[in-house]
Design a protein that fits this description.
- This protein is of the alpha+beta class.
- The chain has a single domain (about 1-240), classed as NADH Oxidase (3-Layer(aba) Sandwich), CATH 3.40.109.10.
- About 50% of the residues lie in helices and about 10% in strands.
- It has nine helices and four strands; from the N terminus they run ααβααβααααβαβ.
- α2 crosses α8 (about 160-185).
- The longest helix has 25 residues, at about 160-185.
Length: about 240
């Protein structure tokens, strides 16, 4: 019987030690498909998912993760990668999709307006936000937007560093989709930030523009792989009703 969303959230724990039991690659791939359905800024989907099952690469990645138990005992690894450098390609993909959706002769006025608004967004707004020149243009846009913002609400995150954060936020949402999907089928995970990301990129043959968001180990938990009772600060300390 499948878990509810709440049950999957409650079951998920960061697992540091896994059983020596293989997990189904096809099931993990389906969980990664679920990851691809996560919300993403401007629907640009500036992510890639590397599903590692090869033993030699697993060993290399484990060393790059400092041989921590979560990596060393994992049966598979998933590397979540951000690809901010692919924004042009992904914007074009959105435009092609919109053209296919609205490819009919009898568009209503409302549909014409929706198509124009959406295509203008990807043709004009997205380039305005993402185009940069060694970070200089980003700072010019940033200060221009700050000045305009004195008079009306405006998007202010226009620097290269801001757009990196946007890509990583979207990738984090995808990672959570993946981990909860794994939890639903009684598979365990551990998101790891502790790694030599340069070595990870070299092992996977990633281009310069790619960045490692996180590495997620996968397997079936050993009881001792859960390091203690879950702790969270009191909910009242983080919840504010406005």
């Amino acid at each position: 019987m499948k878990k509810t969303v709440t049950e999957a959230i409650e079951y998920r724990r960061s697992t540091r030690v896994y059983q020596d039991t293989e997990i189904d690659t096809k099931k993990v791939k389906q969980c990664l498909y679920n990851a691809s359905l996560a919300p993403t800024s401007s629907n640009l989907q500036l992510w890639e998912f590397y599903h590692v099952t090869d033993k030699d690469i697993l060993n290399k990645l484990s060393k790059a993760c400092f041989n921590q138990n979560a990596a060393k005992t994992a049966k598979q690894l998933v590397v979540i990668v951000t690809r901010k450098d692919l924004w042009r390609q992904r914007a074009k993909a959105n435009i092609s999709f919109l053209n296919s959706v609205y490819n009919k002769p009898d568009l209503t006025e409302r549909e014409h307006k929706r198509k124009k608004m959406a295509t203008d967004y990807y043709n004009k707004i997205i380039p305005t936000i993402y185009i940069d020149f060694f970070g200089l243009l980003g700072y010019l846009k940033y200060w221009a937007f700050q000045i305009i913002g004195l008079f009306k609400p405006i998007y202010r995150q226009a620097r290269t560093s801001d757009m990196r954060i946007v890509a990583h936020k979207s990738a984090g949402l995808a990672a959570e989709n993946f981990m909860l999907s794994m939890s639903e089928i009684n598979y365990d995970t551990c998101p790891m930030e502790g790694s030599d990301t340069l070595r990870v990129k070299k092992i996977l043959g990633l281009p310069k523009g790619a960045e490692i968001n996180m590495i997620i180990s996968c397997g079936i938990r050993k009881p001792e792989g859960i390091y203690g009772t879950r702790f969270r600060v009191p909910f009242e300390d983080v919840y504010f009703k406005v």
